[in-house]
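Format notes (please read before filing issues)

Several people have asked whether sequences and structure tokens are stored in separate files. They are not. Every record keeps both together, in the order shown below: the sequence lines, then the token lines. Line labels are part of the format and must not be stripped during preprocessing.
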Amino acid sequence: MEYKKGSPSFEFDNIGYQLGKALNQIHQVNIEDCPFDKYSPEQLLSNFLIKFESIYPEIQDNYKDETKESIIKFIKENIPNDKVLTHGDYSMPNILINNDEISFIDLGELGISTKYLDIYYFMKSLKINEKEEIFQDFLNGYGLEKINNNYIKWMDLIDTSLC
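Then the structure lines:
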């Protein structure tokens, strides 16, 4: 294992574009021979459905107007259809910056999933670190004009089953 010098990305301003570009580079890695797929969209959905009854009270906290049936329908109909190599915990503390070099730490959840897994966790990290203003620059660096809000909602629901 190599020691990397650097400071967590939340210590920097105007870093959104570079962080989006860096994530896109991770997502471009060929996944053909990658054996790590415990977070594939299909696995995430299966895990969610298995745990649904026990996590439903927590889901109700954020989705008060939705019924069990509407949530199940939504989660089944909006499964993301992309598969990429994901960091698994793409958050500001896990991205180190040293001069112009970006390094990643905490790769224990690296594997195949939807790009929205990393985007969702990055969005949460921006909120926690009070850096939400860099999100549009992040999207520009990633190469997305906008995000699919259904996929973000899907990930928010899925995240409940991962805790």
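For reference, the curators noted about this record: The longest helix spans residues 41-62. The chain has a mean pLDDT of 95.
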